[in-house]
Specification:
Layout: H1 13-17, E1 21-25, H2 37-43, E2 48-53, E3 69-70, E4 77-80, E5 98-102, H3 113-127, E6 131-134, E7 145-148, E8 163-165, H4 170-180, E9 187-190, H5 218-227, E10 247-250, H6 255-263, E11 271-278, E12 290-297, H7 305-319, H8 330-333, H9 336-343, H10 348-366
Parallel strand pairs: 1-2, 1-5, 2-4, 5-6, 6-9
Antiparallel strand pairs: 3-4, 7-8, 10-12, 11-12
Helix pairs in contact: 3-4, 5-7, 7-10
Length: about 375
Amino acid sequence: MVKNGIDRLEASLEELRSLRVGVITNHTSLTIEREHLVDKLQRMGVPIVALFSPEHGIRGQLDENVPDGVDERTGLPIYSLYGDRKKPTQQQLAHLDALIFDIQDIGARYYTYISTMGLAMEAAAERGIPFYVLDRVNPIGGAVEGPLADPDRLSFTAYHTIALRHGMTVGELAQMFNAERSIGATLKVIPCEGWKRSMTLDECGLYWINPSPNMRRLQQAFLYIGIGVWEATNLSVGRGTDTPFEVVGAPWIDGRKLAGALNELPTSAGARFVPIVFTPTASVYKGVACQGVSVFITHRDLLRPFAMGLGLGYCLRKLYPREWEAQKALGLLANRELHAMLMDGADPERMVQRCTRDVEQFTRRREPFLMYA
């Protein structure tokens, strides 16, 4: 059976009992028996002083700025790391001896939990306190896709110059961040047990927990790599529907035309596209009827989610050069060269080939930090 770091915490019990800790956590921080980390630490006699909340809040239900608060059950203060402040302050860390991070990531560079981890590591290093990462499996496995973020395009959705689909665990990323960004944190990673890079979550015997309100099943985590990347543009990516990241559309799209074009592309291997009409109840085009496509994964072994996403971008740029605001895609792509190719109408396989050198470079770069075969 695969175990996450939280289920191997007992090995660090003695040292943790002597520390006043702050816990960066949310609703995904559960043991295999579905006990929350806060409950487990308290049961183990570890003194918790404060909780820190990432995007979507401690309970993972918010799609907006997260306020500070007080945990109703424990009475502990909750400090938000998603709002005007995204990094713990030295005042908040003043009475802490350590920070513990345990949150389920998805595997995309722009999923913000890893940015929260990096910024919190910086704060811990500045304070001179150790930073514990309870490692968790990467639910979509260890494959790498997409471009590196440009060094001058780093942001809260691109904390470091990593590939768009990084194929790493949070513990491995923490080691990379600490070394390559010269953070200088006293980093302690409690590793997973039994996980291999070839394994996806459904092969691990672990529960799926929605890591955010619009990430409701493993299929969406895969598709998020190729569909979520376009959500800064004037597209609905299914937020406000029952199937976020499994549908994409807009009022100006002809669903049959788009589905037909996508189904002919080599980059669509492993997926099929079906025309759909939907009306989102939230986010982009809330209350407005949209045409577009519903995406079905037919052969996951053949699917290259980001290549599929580049095929989508190519078709939208070709069919709707005036309507689709493709210039806004640079933010999440975070790579000027690839974005310029998209704007110029480059063939999707050419764009995939452009990413190959980044994938090869990143695969070499990440090697010293990998903890699992």
